[in-house]
């Protein structure tokens, strides 16, 4: 995998995209399972393909290391994390307590390009399934929340996060695999056209989230183009908030600044701990939003963060407001080492302790309601996301970061009130569905 496996696909649920499903003959119940084995240290697949060979026999042939071993067919699945050499035989038997998925890949070139399903909360437990020559695929995976990808080095695509509910019947998924060598021309040409306001207003009428990407972080030209787009939308009264690739709590001072409070904006931007925003162009952009908000139109645009915390500020927020948040003393004590060294602190916790902390923070966040508790809720979720990601490495860390950012986008999209949330991030981030 190593960035290669996850960066592959435009995924779309049929119902969400307004396209009818393509009819494919169902695979026979005794079809060969598709087996996928990945090295957890490198993220690279070491075995993939249909095989009737017992999974344990495949594992016994692997070199020393840590692996995720998965197999699935139309009516069964197996997935486990194993360490070789084996101290004891792992449970790799196939199970049938799963949800059926059928679908098709459109635009896929010839070759072996499996579809992978990554669980939100545990991306190491990936399921993968092979694709037939006509693009059809079928699998059976445990219920839960997933995002899907198609392997292929030359593809560039979007992600879709979706739920597979137990007992809800078979899911039908359609995926578009876009060939990087034959992508349509960029729409950046629209930036300098006279019909820009009409173009973006038409786009915003059918969206609650608009992602505006950039090919290089910190690019002055990219931010200048973004500013034109956003201010055109703002003039039409279409923008609820602007989400940036920075920690939610670190962004609080920027939000205070654009909404009229006395804030040293240069110090606030430097305090993000993320160099990509520490530019004259971004500070000028914030000043423009502040002026817009003070125009007397009553149309106030907020600034929010959707990325993982870059420093200790999110942890400091919880500790400072521990009484109001109702956090237990034991949880506060566990947060202290995470504040100063997040990776080491998370690694020092066993899986149950770590999950218990995450669950407690999420429960507290779910109990927060109303605009007065907005920042408390964001801070709790931000720290929960940081703990989830800090214990992971490599491609799994990147995958969980995507999930965390999607979670924050969805949270902020709930408050758009008929307007749009504009997401500013790198192309790979702003493109996800």
Please tell me about this protein's structure.
This protein is of the alpha/beta class and 433 residues long. It is 35% helix and 21% strand. A four-stranded mixed sheet has the order 1-12-6-9. Strands 3-2-4-5 form a four-stranded antiparallel sheet. The two termini are 21 Å apart. Residues 1-29, 154-158 and 179-194 have low confidence and may be disordered.
Provide key terms for this protein.
single chain, 433 residues, alpha/beta, 4-stranded mixed beta sheet, 4-stranded antiparallel beta sheet, 35% helix, globular
Based on CA atoms alone, the radius of gyration comes out at: 23 Å
Strand content: 15-25%
**Helix content class:** 25-40%
Q: Specify the biggest β-sheet.
A: 4 strands, mixed
Low-confidence spans: 1-29, 154-158, 179-194
Helix count, per DSSP? 15
Look at the helices and sheets and give the structural class. Answer: alpha/beta
Give the CA-based shape. globular
Work out the number of β strands. Answer: 16
Span between termini: 21 Å
Summed over residues and divided by their number, the pLDDT gives a mean of: 76
Strand order of the largest sheet: 1-12-6-9
């Amino acid at each position: 995998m190593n960035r290669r496996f996850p960066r592959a696909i435009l995924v779309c649920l049929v119902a969400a995209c307004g396209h009818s499903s393509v009819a494919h003959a169902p695979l026979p119940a005794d079809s060969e399972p598709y087996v996928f084995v990945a090295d957890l240290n490198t993220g690279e697949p070491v075995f993939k393909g249909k095989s009737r060979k017992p999974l344990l026999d495949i594992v016994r042939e692997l070199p020393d290391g840590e692996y995720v071993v998965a197999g699935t067919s139309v009516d069964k699945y197996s997935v486990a994390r194993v360490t070789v050499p084996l101290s004891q035989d792992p449970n790799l038997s196939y199970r049938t307590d799963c949800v059926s998925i059928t679908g098709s890949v459109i635009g896929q070139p010839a070759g072996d390009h499996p579809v992978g399903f990554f669980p939100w909360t545990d991306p190491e437990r990936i399921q993968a399934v092979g694709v037939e020559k006509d693009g059809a695929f079928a699998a059976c995976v445990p219920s839960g929340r997933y995002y899907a990808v198609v392997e292929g080095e030359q593809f560039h695509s979007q992600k879709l996060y979706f739920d597979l509910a137990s007992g809800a019947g078979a899911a039908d998924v359609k995926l578009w695999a876009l060939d990087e060598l034959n992508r349509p021309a960029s729409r950046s040409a629209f930036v300098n056209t006279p019909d820009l306001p009409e173009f973006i207003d038409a786009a915003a009428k059918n969206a609650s989230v608009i992602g505006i990407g950039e090919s290089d972080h910190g690019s002055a030209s990219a931010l200048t183009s973004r500013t034109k787009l956003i201010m055109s939308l703002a003039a039409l009264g279409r923008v609820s908030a602007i989400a940036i690739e920075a920690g939610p709590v670190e962004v609080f001072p920027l939000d205070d600044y654009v909404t009229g409070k006395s804030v040293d904006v240069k110090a606030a931007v430097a305090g993000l701990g993320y160099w990509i925003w520490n530019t004259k162009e971004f500070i000028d952009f914030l000043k423009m939003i502040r002026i817009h908000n003070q125009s007397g139109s009553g149309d106030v645009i907020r600034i929010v963060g959707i990325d993982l915390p870059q420093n200790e500020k999110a942890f400091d927020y919880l500790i400072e407001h521990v009484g109001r948040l109702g956090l237990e003393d034991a949880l506060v004590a566990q947060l202290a080492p995470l504040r100063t060294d997040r990776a080491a602190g998370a690694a020092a916790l066993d899986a149950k302790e770590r999950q218990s902390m995450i669950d407690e923070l999420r429960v507290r966040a779910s109990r927060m309601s109303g605009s007065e508790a907005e920042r408390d809720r964001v801070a709790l979720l931000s720290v929960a996301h940081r703990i989830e990601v800090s214990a992971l490495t490599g491609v799994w860390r990147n995958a969980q970061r995507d999930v965390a950012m999607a979670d924050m986008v969805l949270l902020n999209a709930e408050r758009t009130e008929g307007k749009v949330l504009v997401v500013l991030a790198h192309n790979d981030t702003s493109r996800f569905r």
